[in-house]
Amino acid sequence: MIDHSLVKRFRQEVGDRLAHQRRLDQANGLPAMTGEDERQFARALISQVLEEHARSEIGLGRTPPTVEEEEALAAGIHAALFGVGRLQPLLDDPEVENIDINGCDKVFVSYADGQELMHDPVAESDDELIELIQILAAYSGLSSRPFDTANPQLDLRLPDGSRLSAVMDVTVRPAVSIRRARLGKVFMSDLVGNGTISPDVGRFLSAAVAARKNLMIAGSTNAGKTTLLRALANEIPPSERLITVERALELGLDQFPELHPNVVAFEQRLPNSEGQGEISMAELVRRSLRMNPSRVIVGEVLGDEIVTMLNAMTQGNDGSLSTIHANSSMEVFNRIATYALQASERLPIDATHMLIAGAIDFVVFIEKRNDYHRGGTLRRYVSSIREVNGCDGRVLSSEVFVPGPGGGAVPHAPVSCLDELMAHGYTPGGW
């Protein structure tokens, strides 16, 4: 067990000494420490602070911490400075899938096997929980993000790639949801191996990416859309220049230069306390088109950026990928039309459907279910793939893969662009 009051106290001491060194370096005209240099220096400061604490305990006639206790304290202080404090052990556990916090002492953890268990408190008080989130908001992402009474909502990407969403003041207690990125560097073969897609669906989607088809991945919250998007993106050749646009950095394609050496990651910027400086998703999508992209990847479509994105898809930027929340592959078209009505362009539904028909080639629907025949194990799988065929007042489409006996997608109807897919290695089986 770690004495969290000591961790909090020592984190403050080490943080103060680290800030003092930064000021000294700046005053002496020295270059700022890199992130890794700062971490190494912090480790030295942690050892120094713990040594001083041990001497103080001996001087007071008390037993100093054991070697094991010192190591645990050091890890806790480092996590509090650069990680996520008492959340760190949960994020280090590869089986943890989601973490829901309804106040500092009501912590619910979902595991990969479908279990959901209560966990120990992650802070001593709600104020300390808010302080932890504020620290993360200050140092995660491309710019500092406020989290306070004036800005009670927050979305950000944690250092390990997990997605954090937090609210305060609009709930009785601060609430936090963390969705883990358990599969960071993921390939189509991994998804075939864990049953998310069949080998036939895997070959189909790989060929669609190679043929530069525009794909929209749809599904409910936590269905696995982002993981599937990462796997599809990893089918793109390393020679291509990728521009990703996200509300909060999550895809992390730039973290694997051996797969994608030429990536620019855009992140939406929120307005400051005076309401200035906002850069919206729609603006970023427009900007991405001027950055010489081979493909534009929009992490998640949630609003007015949809019109800009669909226009981009019809202007020669083939091979785009994006995700959207929907309950079926067919519902995607209505969801897009709803977002387009909310955009500044105020596109009528028939115009939106024409835009969809010219922009999207395939909708891939992924879902999650508890498999009660296997002890309640949580399953994620692609159940439907719909091809967009044109427009006649509404989007015309055909479901080329439909749910099979086990729920996973199986071939159902011929694909109109089959020759293109076959040219990229796809051989149909089942029609």
Automatic annotation (TrEMBL):
Q: What is this protein called?
A: Flp pilus assembly CpaF family ATPase
Pfam families for the chain: T2SSE
The UniProt family comment states: Belongs to the GSP E family.
Q: Identify the SUPFAM superfamilies for this entry.
A: P-loop containing nucleoside triphosphate hydrolases (SSF52540)
Question: What PANTHER family does the entry give?
Answer: TWITCHING MOTILITY PROTEIN PILT, TYPE II_IV SECRETION SYSTEM ATPASE
Annotated transmembrane regions: none
Residue limits of the Bacterial type II secretion system protein E domain?
89-355
CDD domains from the UniProt entry = VirB11-like_ATPase (cd01130)
Q: Which domain of life is it from?
A: Bacteria
The residues forming the signal peptide are: none
Q: Which InterPro entries match?
A: P-loop_NTPase, T2SS/T4SS_dom, T4SS_GSP_E_ATPase
Q: What organism is the protein native to? A: Nonomuraea polychroma
Molecular function GO labels: ATP hydrolysis activity
